Amino acid sequence: MRDYKLKHYVYDILIDKGLGEQMATYINMLVLLLALLLIAFIIDFFTKRILWRFFAGIAKRTKTNFDDILIKNKLPRRVAHIIPLGILIEFVPDVFSDFAFTENIIEKTLKVLAIVLTLRIIRSFFNSVKDYLRTLPRYKDKPLDSYAQVFMIFAWLLGIYGAFAIVFGISFYKFAISLGTASAVILLIFRDTILGFVASIQVAINDMVRIGDWITFEKYGADGDVIEINLATVKVQNWDKTITTIPTYALISDSFKNWRGMMSSGGRRIKRSVIVRTSSIHFLTDLEIERFKKIELVANYLNLKSKEIKEFNEKHNVDKTELINGRNLTNFGVFRKYLLTYVEQHSAINKDMTLMVRQLAPTPQGIPMEIYAFSADIKWQNYEYIMGDIFDHVLASVGYFNLEIYELGLSVPE
């Protein structure tokens, strides 16, 4: 087509037929344009078929699934557009050789399309790499979306710079220098993106959040599993199946709770108390001690403790006509020992983690008796069942020790 005779072949025929020069020029341009588009379409069609079969053949012969992911993300199809687009850019000047203004516009348009095509190829490649890495266990919980978005932001910025440079007919370098004065505006526009980028790097390096982690972020009303981490936001699926979106930079600027440690520890903390009426606490009489010895979980304890206390009091000639004298057992202390033994023997409690039953500071309502332990099952439903089972027993057993649980509005018996 670069040969003059070939470019003006139709034009010369039309002139010989007696057609006017202007009309012959337009018809010649249309014929050349249709021929060029047809050639580009045919080449594009066959190139796509060839590349598709080539990649499909490789995918069948290799063990890795990376090539399958490349096909899924349409990389071969987009690469196939390079040859026909290159042909169009190369021969458009010949088609519009008699229309300088139109040639300039179309040539710039095709070059901008070439930049867009390049960016789409890059995006397909990055998406393929991201999808492939997600199939590997060590990268499954990493914020790969953030990294891919960062690369694409830089790629799009370069692409936009290049497109403007082509449209305005200046060099890319000069155009980039001229944009330096607008850097403050650009920083303002991409503020969240820049903050998100910095935050995503810190989150990844410090291993603060992974996909699949259970986090609680009260400021944003989030309480559930992290399902997506990208450059600008973190998506959390709450327990009621709603989705909460949190800015990525909020993970490093605000306080939140990550339950991963609990999930990986093999135990979920139980920390709950009941408030015992102070007026129901008293020293135990011998009669009460004998009755409490019928409770299996404290029988051995009472036998040993009663003997120890009796020997101490006899050694020190303690007057036991009054219970307050010397050493004594209380129903509250025996109840505490009972609960500790009960929790220690409970099959659903993790015995390798902290386990205790403790008395907290007195309150206007009474004295809290707290169970601090860890369930062996961390699943929420099972955890709630275990904790409920334990405190059902606690509430039902209080009366056996002549103790009372505080209830608001309930008068103290005289």
UniProtKB/TrEMBL annotation:
Q: Where in the cell is it found?
A: Membrane
TM segment ranges:
26-46, 147-166, 172-190
Q: Which SUPFAM superfamilies match?
A: Sm-like ribonucleoproteins (SSF50182)
Specify where it is mainly localized.
Answer: membrane
Q: Which InterPro entries match?
A: LSM_dom_sf (IPR010920), MscS_beta-dom_sf (IPR023408), MscS_channel_2nd (IPR006685), YbdG (IPR030192)
Q: Could you list this entry's UniProt keywords, alphabetically sorted.
A: Membrane, Transmembrane, Transmembrane helix
- Domain Mechanosensitive ion channel MscS, by residue range, is 192-260
Record flagged with keyword Cell wall biogenesis/degradation = no
Q: What is this protein called?
A: Mechanosensitive ion channel
Q: Which organism is it from?
A: Winogradskyella pelagia
